[in-house]
Amino acid sequence: MPQPVTALVVIPVYNHAATLREVVAGSLRYAPVLVVDDGSTDMDSPLMPVSPAAPAPGGAFAEGHPLRGLPVYYARHGKNRGKGKAVLTGAAVARNLGMTHIITVDADGQHDPADIPAFLEAVASRPLTLFVGKRDFDSAEVPGSSHFGRAFSNFWFKVQTGHEVGDSQSGFRAYPLAVLDKLSLGESRYSFEVEVLVRAAWAGFPVADIPVGVHYPPAGERVSHFRPIVDNLRLTVLNTRLTIRAIMPVPQKQYARDAEGKITALHPLRSIRLLLCRDETPWNLALSGAVGVFIGTLPIFGLHSLTILLVLGAMKRNKIAGLAASQLCIPPLVPALCIEAGHYMRHGRLLTEVSWQTLGREGIERIGEWLLGALLMAPLLAGVCGAVVFALALLVRRGLRPEGAS
Prior knowledge:
By secondary structure, the chain is of the alpha/beta class.
């Protein structure tokens, strides 16, 4: 039987003593709470040793401490290690407590704990989805830099994954521990929240929005540890790395219900079976494969994977199937066919000489012939690929159908 869904609210905190108690008290109304103190200097350490395996005793904190008397789980980093590390510490504690999910809430009072039940309801129905709180930015109090930052981050998320998310910078999230266990994550600070979304989407896990409220205090009262130069540089480097990885013609490792390996054109029947296990349809797989081959045939050097992600994302089709099918177009076979077709269309004869003269000195002509030939070969090869994938998918689906099913 599947494990019942249980969630621990994780509140990473770094020098937010003024707002922490209200956030924790509000969150305790809906779920158990773990506070991960990431090396704060504005709060005293507990008066007695506190284990994250049990709620802190009422007298563990001094009078006036924000957590005094609150039945919270508590963990502390000796020095500031970054929000990403704090979230992963919270995940480790939740795992030890037998939880299946963590719900992260920022300690600065920006998030309304009253939205936690919406996350609890969502993860109960879709336990392997990573939910992100989409903040309501219609309020006039939201700074312009936050509007720009969210739009900028959302754009790169779509480029890198082909998916859309409404607020990729929101820290109000529900993480399935089973998803975090599958991801290789290298970021430890604010950039963690970008990386984890991209890698979750690459791994085949859904990323979805949940509308939430937001409160931004007046500028003079706002506490933010975001360092514009350093943290924006980190995000730039991260987005560069992720984008380069996204355009590489090597599919990401996917996790299906019966995952047996990577989805690749080298193992078409196995790959189609894995994709059909995700409730894909033969028509969708055929169209996705056809688009992948069509784009893979074009002479757009180094941009095939990125173009496939954007086009299939806009079409809401299967990007993994498209990327896998595009592997069939890796040189030299398909480019050679296009060049031969283009050469024949220009000169009425095939190109039979392969030499430095024809491929080097006349390289510009060959590229032109590749483009010309691709106008013929791209739709032809796409049609053949789509038909083959559709036929194979029907065959595989028939084999997957339980005995007695109509």
